[in-house]
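ZP: hey, is the guanosine-5'-triphosphate complex queued? I don't see it on the tracker
AM: it wasn't, my bad. submitting now with these inputs:
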Amino acid sequence: MQFIDEAIIEVKAGDGGDGSNAFRRSSGQPHGGPSGGDGGDGGSIILVADPNLSSLLDFKYRRHYKTERGEHGRNQDQYGAASPDLVLKVPVGTVVYDDATNVQLVDLANAGDTHTICKGGIGGRGNIHFKTAWNQAPTKFEPGTRGEERKIRLELKLLADVGLLGFPSVGKSTFISHVSRSRPKIADYPFTTLVPNLGVVRLSDERSLVIADIPGLIEGAAEGAGLGHQFLRHVERCRVLLHIVETTFMTGPERSPLDDFDVINGELAKYAPDLANKPQIVVLNKVDATEPERIAEVQQAFAARNIELFTMSAATGEGVAPVLERLWSHLLAARAG
Ligand SMILES: Nc1nc2c(ncn2[C@@H]2O[C@H](COP(=O)(O)OP(=O)(O)OP(=O)(O)O)[C@@H](O)[C@H]2O)c(=O)[nH]1
Ligand SMILES: [Mg+2]
């Protein structure tokens, strides 16, 4: 599953500082030579592909970026300081277009790829450079050149990093709506979610990940039961799966979370063994509505199989943060590898 995340921003690199036109004037040197220093270069704007990011969210909030001009040169041979470059971090896979011409400027396909999107202006030379044998007092100097500016379109094909798995009504959509701005329909009947949808989760300023909410699976999905399993292809490229179980059984007959877990994994194996081998984080949801003794039982059952089980309430948010952190550490390892 993918959708296109897009942002249009304006970038302007600083101009170069002007060279200076000055002369040495001191009591010892009433007719000293030229002493105008060079202007500094303007700061460039550089894009870099950062594996910590997975959306263009930042660029929707802030649309204008610029760097300062270089300092002008001064008398007494002083050069103006260059202004610092501005580095803009974009997610790996960002393709950059000139918005006016639609020409592709760069495809930042790999972590660490960099591209100077706007070159800063070059500082002009001061008159100290124009002294010649026949002109000892040049008044010539150069202005700084203009920094580049352009309007660019950033495009990212969003691929889900994390796929949600689970029976209907375990709280997959509740989870994604708690952690992202995605607002899928949530209801207490099975198969509320009919089409997959994506949510971008922001763990902190520097870290984001994309989660795919998919329809619930049931036993026999491989043979078409329920909504079938064709939408599993949407999570095939995910790096990690978040498998949600619950034990309140708002709908359907009594089942145990461990049985549910096994049933879903059986369906995965029938669909695609590759998918069944993907790392899974398992979480017991709805702990706000579950008896503590029951939670302990379920934990023991998973522990007996050596499966780490997180607990959370997607409704109240309790326990959600550690789940996200665990997903994140899996992802970072996978993205780096
Ligand atoms: N008490 C409680 N109820 C929850 C929690 N999470 C989800 N629910 C409720 O469980 C029901 C099903 O939630 P959904 O998020 O729609 O479940 P789903 O897994 O997306 O279901 P499908 O889309 O049908 O596969 C809704 O009534 C939710 O309000 C939770 O943490 N605590
Ligand atoms: Mg749902």
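AM: back. The radius of gyration is 30 Å.
ZP: great, adding it to the tracker
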